Amino acid sequence: MAEDGATTGAAQLAGVFGGEENLNAMHADAKRMLADAKAGKWAVDEETGTHLRRAVTQMQDRMMDVSRRLYLLQQAPKLGNDQYATQVAKQFLAAMDSDERSLVRVFLAAQEMLGSLSQAIEIAISKYDASEEAATEALNTFKNQDGQ
User: Fold this and answer.
1) pTM for this prediction
2) Which residues have C-beta within 8 Å of that of residue 8, sequence separation ≥ 6?
């Protein structure tokens, strides 16, 4: 019974990101974007980066509110000491945090994805600023040589 609720909860959380497959794809994409930004293959101007940063930050803030209570899903519920209650508590824990489809793991994957995306945006903004500065310096050098 708890497993059905956990599966539903994990599916609903993944649904916020368009479903489990989409969440997994987003997670992979965020890691790729981070690698590309670090390698200088992806850059974004400050204005666009600010909008992206705001959207990611808003989602991170919402998830932070939930994460403060996440530990509750990683504890056995207090159902009693008899054998049946103990078994139900174990099943609850397994349903909440046992594999990549369980609620806690889906939540943590979503948080990690947003963290990677946030990092990628910050690096991409700095790469854009650096490339713009380098282009300005190159133009100034060209102007100075042309004027001599």
Assistant:
1) 0.68
2) none
